[in-house]
Amino acid sequence: MMNNNKYKILVIEDEENINNLLTALLETNGYQAISAYNCQNGKMLFASHRPDLVILDLGLPDFDGMTFLKAVRKTSLTPIIILSARAEEKDKVDALDCGANDYITKPFSSAELVARVRSTLRNSRHSSDEGRFPGGKFELNGLVIDYDARRVFTDGNEIKLTQTEYNIIALLSEHSGKVMTYTAIIKAIWGFSDSNSTKKLQVNMANIRRKLGVKPCENNYIINELGVGYRMCERE
Ligand code: CA
């Protein structure tokens, strides 16, 4: 029987091999995939198919993928995952700050791509729900954030955080699974940014990680996406 409840995903990627690989991978994982090979065609299919998520290559033959992103964000919150061959952080940061939900750098693993798609779809449903997590608590590998009490515990021991440190970890947890850029975090926490903001954020993050008992190169709880921002690991 035909399953009409599948999530519809639009793949905009001009390299045929990668486009085929992506659509096959998505279909294997229970999604319905639609292919576009340039920006113009992508816009048409976006309008006619109303996909639940878009995977967007930045380097397209007619227009830059950023053109598509900006055009869509004027009218729609449909989640968009950027696919970029460019390793430069600047492109990822620009795309995230223009409203992309996440990014994947080519070459990517199948597992990574599927995980990103799942987490992005889950996050976008999340934000449309009222309220946060069951019981007003965030839990991840022994870490507990109690939003009502504004208290944080690891393995049952309370971690003493400053107001700012608490606000940062609470913010990241509310977007767990999703990378947040420095700019997005700074705006949410301080409401403005100046030349000191990134440094201030990094100092706060270093303190949070130390207090949580995370060693500098470990990625427990919070992943440092170098040059881009921070990502709270996703709850199981
Ligand atoms: Ca391309």
Give an overview in words.
The chain has 236 residues and is an alpha/beta fold. The chain folds into 2 domains: 2-128, 3-Layer(aba) Sandwich (Rossmann fold); 137-232, Arc Repressor Mutant, subunit A, CATH 1.10.10. Helix content is 41%, strand content 21%. The protein has 8 helices and 12 strands. The strands form 3 sheets. A 5-stranded parallel sheet has the order 2-1-3-4-5, sandwiched between helices. The chain is globular, with a radius of gyration of 19 Å. The mean pLDDT is 88. Bound molecules: calcium ion. Calcium ion is lined by residues 14-15, 57, 59-60.
Outline the biggest β-sheet: 5 strands, parallel
Global morphology: globular
Number of H- or I-type helical stretches = 8
Give the proportion of residues in helices.
Answer: 40-55%
According to DSSP, the number of beta strands is: 12
Weakly predicted, low-confidence segments:
none
Q: Over the alpha carbons, how many angstroms does the gyration radius reach?
A: 19 Å
User: In CATH's first tier, which class of the largest domain applies?
Assistant: Alpha Beta
Structural class: alpha/beta
Count the domains.
2
**Fourth CATH level, the homologous superfamily of the largest domain:** Response regulator
| Average pLDDT level | 88
CATH topology of the largest domain: Rossmann fold
| β-strand amount | 15-25%
CATH architecture of the largest domain: 3-Layer(aba) Sandwich
